[in-house]
Structures are given as C-alpha cells and as structure tokens.
Amino acid sequence: MKEITYHKEGDYLIPDLIMDNSCENYNIGKYGRLRLNYIKNYKRGLYTELMINGTLSKHLSDIENTANERIGLIVKQLAKSENVNEDLKSINQLAWVQAMNNIKNRAEEIVYNEIIYI
What we know:
The chain has one domain. Helix content is 67%, strand content 7%. The protein is built from 5 helices and 2 strands. It has helices spanning 30-42, 44-53, 56-81, 86-91, 93-116, and strands at residues 6-9, 12-15. The longest helix has 26 residues, at 56-81. The relative contact order is 0.13.
C-alpha cells in the first residue's frame, strides 16, 4: 500500500491523490469512462478508495470487459428470440439494421442498469 501525503488548505489536511499512469496497460473504453464519471460524481467514497489503493484503472478495465461481454450475450439472445438473422438481412437490409440497432440500444440500457450505474 502506498504512503499517503497531505497538503494543508486552510484548516484542513487534504490527501494528495494522483491517478497512476497504469491506464495504458488497461482497456478503458466507453463503458469504463461512463463508470468513472458515475463514481466520481455519485460514489465519492468508492472513487477515493480505488484511487488510494491504486486499483481504479483495473476496476474500470474490468467494468469495460464485463459490459462488452454482457452486451454481446444480450444482443445474441435478443436477436435469436426476435428472429433477426441473416435471412432478414438478405431480404430487407434496412429492417435488419433497424432491428439490430434497437436490440443493441436495449442491451446497453440493461448493462447501464446492471453494471455501470450501481
């Protein structure tokens, strides 16, 4: 565990928290950035704990990977249950694109509620 240093602002000691540059080793995309924004604004305790422990980058990378896997699974399941397949794509490409966009949007909404914004 890292030693925490402080600086004084008025009568208060404020911890010097610096995000490590190990983000380069992790894949932090759309869902990781959404999670970062959420915990910065609404889960300050968790954000501070992850910063102090140096595990913020790993947490965001895990969220990114989990969200992508979950969205892929949900899209496949919904496409299969709604009969959105290659046959529809060859018959009516525009209807297939509309259906797949609808399915992806619903899958993302599910992931937002299950993984990102909790």
